[in-house]
Amino acid sequence: MDGYPAGSLDHNVPFLAVSGLSTAPTRLLLTDPVLREQGVLVRSEIPPIDTHEARVILRYIQETDATNLPWHSRDNAKRYKFRIKTIGREFLLPPRRARLPDDIEATVPPPVLHSPFSPLSPGSSLYPDGLIDTRWLQKHQELIPSVCLAFYSLTSDSTLATLHDNQLKTDINAVKNAITQSAYKTRLVVVILSDQSPASVSQFHERLENIRRSTALDPKNSLFVLPTQRTETELETAVDSVLTAVFDQATEYYRDLARHSRKKKSRGVAPQPTIPPTSGTSHTLSLQGWNVRYDFKAAIFAEFRQEIDVALRSYEQAYETLLGPDILETIPSWSPRFNDARLLSDVTAIRALKCLLWTGQSTAAVRRWQTHHDRIFDLVDRRGHGTQNYGWKAWEARWSTVMANLIEKAKFPELEATSIVPYRPPEKNLSAERLQPWEYLHHQGYWYRAAARHLSERRRLARSIPEEDRKQPDASLPSQPSKAYGYDTYLCPQPYEEFPLTGPGVNHAQLIFEHLVLARSEFEKRHQARTSMELALECCKELERIREWPRIMDILAPLWRNMSFRKEGWWDAMEALSWTLRNAAVQVGQRDIIVAIDWELLNRGFSKRSGWHYDITKSLDDVDSEEAPVINFSDDHVTSFLRASFVFKNEEGKAGQTCPAQLAITSNSFSNAAPVVLRSIRVEFDGSLRTICLKHQADNNQPPSASKLRVTKAALAEAETSGDTDSDEGSETSSEPDSAILLDGTDDLTLVPGQTRVFEMDVPLREPGDANASSVQVSVAPESFTLKYSIKLRENNLAGLWLSQSSRKKITRINPHKIKVLPRPPNMKVGFANMLEQYYASESIGLDLELLNEEEADAITKLDIFVYGQDIPSYKVRIEDGTEKASHAGAGESRLDGISVGTIPSSQSTKATVVIDPVDRPMSFDILVKARYHLVSDPGTPIIQQATHHLNIVNPFESSYDLFPRLHSEWPDYFNPEDIQDLSEGDEVVRRPRGIAQKWSLATRYASFVYEDLVILDLDVSILSTQGGVSCKITKGQAIDESGLIISPKTIEEARFELVAQKFDLDDRSQATADLAFTIKWRRLGSPREVVNAMTLQLPQFYVTSSEPRVLAGVSYYSGPERSPSEGDALSALVFLDVTIENPSSHFLTFGLTMEPSDEFAFSGAKTTTVNVLPAARRTATYRLLPLVRGAWVRPTLVVRDKYFQKVLKITPTEGMKADRDGVLVWVPPEDEGDGDGDGDGDDKTEAASETGA
Asked: Rounded mean pLDDT of 524-542?
């Protein structure tokens, strides 16, 4: 919209002048010297406010300026919108009435004066029959504010209050009077700033009321008091409410102006000018012209009020009247008023379009745009200079650009770059209609592209201007007739300026390029790749005209490398882009692109260019080159005139053998193109096959054959090389990028246009596995450059052909470039020897491995060991010659690769040992042994033999455990001075336990579930950890002989250990636990004596101290001097029953003991008694029992009851006793047992000891 006069298309919002907050000098709004001389000055004598709060208010007001806001109604954050101008304390208003010209004398009665912007005033540019121009719009947009918002400060100094208030009243009244005398209806709104808080401003109520009465300002909408002693957020909120009230005043101002315009229209009479015209046509503006002016004014004022619907109706009414038969149809095309009316029609139509887009009527806007285009086309074609000239195309380009600019201003969310569709859906009232595609509102790129096409037509028509019209008129010949009347020069230059004979003229290429760039950026944002590439090519066509070669390279080079046209087969677009890019590459010396484009354009699928050499060796003849570049590219980015295929004759082959194969290369170049001589051809493979390299060797005896098919046999031989210059270092398809061995061959590599060259060869197969030809690289190396082009061999699921000079044989399988290489059958035995029946945890496992070479030649062998399992222990491999390699523990998989075994002679064997470190639990894993070898006679063919063994490791022992209470002989003494520790000796004093000690018997029963006898060397229980501040000591019950104890399969053995637990502190009453481990040292029966395996079994956690009282029962038997037989028999049967009550708590406890009579024994002792036990003490009560039976268990009916809680305590038996559900049992030895054995040894007693429970 830049082509239209400034201000004619600006969005109208109320004009607000802010006075009193800025100390900067006021910029003059009235720039016309004549109007400035006659203007009305509005001045205030009070200096502007310069405080922090004033700057905050000014910044916030300036931030609310709506001049650059988008043209839509979706932003409803604020109710008001203003065009804000900040002035100091004065501003100049234009004169309300124009003066009479100096050459006209005053008449009687005096003439009626009108506005200087009216066609009625002789000094106006519209006098006498003009409609309206942009000066009237600028008057309301820039010169006459709707509201003057003046800020003053209110002093809080009581000594100066009266003086300052009087100055304030005088100044406000002076400003009011100046605005009134100007005859304009601008509103004055005064804001008084107070440095008080909102709560304390009431103290100035009388002063403010005095100011209000003196200035006659309405406190509701014209006088505001703003306390500034508040936060910035609160201050902005208060200013926001003031601006809302000011917006109401501004709306009412523009409503009054619109009402005045409608009133003048309703008179139905055309007003008379100040002085009747006496020159020119001597006629004034008609009534219909005045109606257009009134309707246009009403629409503008409605826009100021933000009443878009009202503005749209007024614009449409003004537009229809303007293009009706009474105005534009009556103006001759040679008159300047014709172009003025066209300009007004454009402005009115554009503003109507803006209103439609503002209200979301996008389809209606497109129709309105097309309607105006068609009506102006008809008007210009009938009454103007026609539409086949550069002026009309310039207008069409401008009209399309206007639509793009309006869309940018409207900012529809549906047309954002992230939108799915490139157009906006129609409005709801049109959704049922059948719309044409161009009736949808497309994004702005569509309109910029249309404008660029119109500009291209403008250039074409401008270049068709005759030379006599392109001559600039001679200023010395004023009578020379102007030929510009034959051209449409509406908003565009004259013919001699458009396309002059000498001089630059209009830069059409630059204009077209700028519009194409704008269009392309919009299409790129929406990922419309094809259109974007098309526009990029058009941009470069224009840049080519102005010879901007580097910019062409910047645009086209990335597109050329990744051009989608290449894959989609749009050859015309490819060709146009390639030739344009090549021209630019020649100018900037981009040699790689030149060669690549020439290589691509050799394909006869493109159109043939006359006069072109089509010789790849001449590509750089026009480019200066000091050294020959090496150029690499592939068919991923550049197509070629060459096609390549590779075919294996057989689907499978064995390693060590060869397979017939054919490489076919077809030239599809132009028939008149020069033959292409390849320096080399490389075939890369994925898999185990080596790279094939065919080098050119000219056949001097025979010229190149021009036959369509030529089949030759190429012999391949392995050759070592330190580095192949023909290889593509960037190629990703090479299977062995660091390989030093190639399959070399030679042949005549000359390709004639239209010929297919077939190279037949025998490919050696080495390693087993799947292999396929991945790419073919051809190399051309003239003197000026070296070209390497890679063709990938892709899977196409098509059958291949086996070609011969006389026939074609179809290969009945898909993807014949693949082959499966079967392994060569190994003839080496790999196995484990001397395997044991079972392997156990905690022992080191050695597995003997034997490798027997049954090949006819010596084998150079390497071993790979793979161990698979859940938790793999560390292991090592030891070769017979002493070589050793170790592996760390791992999870899931562990491997040792490349263990050198050396050379195994034919029919001989070698051995290795796999030593697995001991494990602590059962596990199983698989061991895979892979022998990789090659024969001395054939080092290029690897052979693999492998063997797998499943190893299962089990626990050699299982065990169970019981913990029985025992009566400890020691109890802490509170009065022993030796137990007192001197803490002054430092931290190095070993802490000695002083708390309560309790004794336990740990019974461990272990069994062997293996298939052979094992030797037990030692048994031990270790303390892993303790919890609860306790010290534990363990002693063995019985030692094992040095020779060991032989345990048979499924045999249970028992071992006992004594455990004493003692608290460190006597005051510690908490329970304590201990974690124990049972260790069995053992070996196999046939193992050497120095082999010791230690298996550790972790015991469950045991409570080793208790905080509750416990009752322990112990038994002993009489042992005294010899007596008479009768007395000795009675005494020898005497049994002593000790009942010990331990109180580890800190409470004084009382227990009641009750012994009931029994038929099995007589007893001596208290039948019923009370035992008092002090805290941390123990008491023992002894009963003497005289059994009435022998060799049997007797049950003392003894009850121990807690007197306080009335709880019966359980009696725990110790050695020589047992317990059941009813109580404890005491063993009475038979008569034949020895008298006086205090331990009561015997089979039944031993049984009792083993059955004792805790």
From this structure: 93
